[in-house]
Write a sequence for this structure.
């Protein structure tokens, strides 16, 4: 069934593609109707996010969980309550054989990365510095350094680039000796 507008005359065509004669209705005989669609989506905040009443325009941060046609926003801490997913924080550590001067390493990494900051000796139990506030490089002994970071995609990329930089520095040190 479709509406055809031919030379200013609107006709509703209701052909059923059979051998029966087609039925045509004039526009005056067609009842008017309107369809309204609500394009707004609504999501409910649950558990910890629902404890606080939000003002108009205030933002909320959490996970959007969609089940069938309902949407819910929940905090990360509530994820295990409503699903079988669990969240964990992974701290990573790698020890690299490094026999160069620790100050040289820090100087070279400062040339490569924007943010390299020294850490107090009390906090790190020896000389250490932090790269991009994500990765800690510690002086363990005359022959070893260690890298510590909390695993997430950005910290993993920073750690990978620092490890490659340290290995390149080691190659430069050994090629000149």
């Amino acid at each position: 069934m479709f509406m055809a507008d031919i030379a200013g005359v609107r006709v509703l065509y209701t052909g059923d593609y059979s051998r029966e004669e087609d039925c045509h209705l004039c526009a005056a005989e067609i009842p008017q109707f309107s369809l309204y669609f609500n394009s707004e989506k609504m999501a409910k905040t649950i558990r910890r996010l629902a404890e606080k009443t939000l003002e108009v325009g205030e933002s909320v941060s959490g996970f959007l969980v969609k089940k069938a046609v309902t949407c819910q926003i929940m905090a990360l801490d509530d994820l295990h309550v409503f699903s079988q997913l669990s969240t964990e924080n992974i701290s990573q550590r790698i020890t690299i054989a490094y026999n160069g001067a620790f100050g040289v390493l820090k100087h070279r990494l400062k040339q490569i990365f924007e943010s390299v900051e020294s850490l107090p000796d009390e906090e790190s139990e020896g000389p250490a510095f932090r790269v991009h506030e994500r990765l800690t490089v510690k002086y363990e002994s005359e022959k070893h350094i260690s890298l510590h970071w909390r695993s997430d995609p950005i910290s993993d990329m920073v750690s990978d680039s620092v490890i490659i930089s340290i290995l390149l520095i080691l190659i430069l040190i050994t090629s000149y000796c």
User: Anything to note?
Assistant: Residues 153-176 form the longest helix (24 residues). The helical segments are 79-82, 102-112, 121-124, 153-176.
